[in-house]
Amino acid sequence: MTDTTALPASAPPADPATARLLAEAAERIDAPDVVLAVSRNGARTVHTGGSAEPGPVPRELLGHELGSASKPYAGLLLARLVAQGRVRYEDRAADLLAPGFPVHPAVRRITLRHLLTHTSGLPGLPADFYPQAVPRWSTDPYGGYPADRVVRAFLRARPRHRPGTRWHYSNFAVSVLGHTLAAATGTPWEVLLHQLVLAPLRLDATRVRPGPEGTEAVGHRRDGTPVPALDTGGFTAAGAVRATPLDMLTFLEAHAGGPELTDPTLAAALAEVRRPLLRRGLRHTHTHTLTWFHHPSPYGPVLFHAGATLGQQAFLGFRPETGLAVAATATRRVHRADTFVATAYDLLTETP
């Protein structure tokens, strides 16, 4: 079952060619529910489909789990706090999180920038995470590892590399960032995110906890079995954001040169997270900003981030030079032959 619509009604009419492109792309994604949404300078086209019958609430209005695609929200929050002068990128996390607590010298050197840019030297997840997670890996691996345990694991960590010397993707590090910002401001992470990112951008359908019954997309295992809503435990900042595809587009439009912002600190933060910051990989071919992967394309640079949970996938991407934004969701767990990310990436990089 599929549907293609132009949103919102007040925006310029969507290009029929874009609607056809999205319909063709959706056919390449195997999932019970698929949403592909494109904005071209504010003109939106949204295609919904999938193998399941649509429910009473349109798929583009359901909250979807973003998984690691939550990290750009964490990045924008940090950039806004810095623009407001409340923290600095060079602030040492341990000093903010537990002043005076004895930690390993390498941990003492880890800054907020290191945590966000995956250059802290921390592993992807704490070493003691796995014994409690493995028995429930396919149902609830994170829920049994709360915030205080994440903080303790950080304070007793022994980083593998000197901070700032190597890039290693780390949910652990970004989660620590969230707890550190909460400690530094005296404000819970969820409240900070709402005050400084969600409310200013009018992301009314974005949250970090499941909404009322019937308002959330249901994820599925590879065999089609439904899975419960994700509980991220103490890893909220790294993967707890849930948003409708329409709210995802609004978030991206703000990055891609959307409506002019009246708050200079928000405008400065959006500019900061778009700026290329570091390079990694063989011959330093991979470029990153504070929070986005940054690739070249025939139509200018593209910035993107993907995420996956136990039963859902999400993709966020935009081209700042052309005003194109792509948001995509699918309600089936990622697998080896999955085409979801490649399809969404192609929409971002190959669409004129």
Low-confidence stretches: 6-11
Strand percentage, roughly?
15-25%
Structural class: alpha+beta
- Give the integer mean of the pLDDT values: 94
Q: Mind telling me the C-alpha Rg?
A: 20 Å
Short description:
By secondary structure, this protein is α+β, with helices and mostly antiparallel strands. The protein has 13 helices and twelve strands. The chain has a nine-stranded antiparallel β-sheet, with helices on both faces. It has a three-stranded antiparallel β-sheet with strand order 4-6-5.
Verbal overview:
The protein has helices at 16-26, 71-83, 93-97, 105-108, 112-116, 129-133, 147-155, 171-185, 189-198, 236-239, 245-255, 264-274, 340-350, and strands at residues 3-7, 34-40, 43-49, 64-65, 206-207, 242-243, 278-280, 286-288, 293-295, 302-308, 313-319, 324-330. The chain has 13 helices and 12 strands. The longest helix has 15 residues, at 171-185. The model is unreliable at 6-11 (pLDDT under 50). It is an alpha+beta fold and 352 residues long.
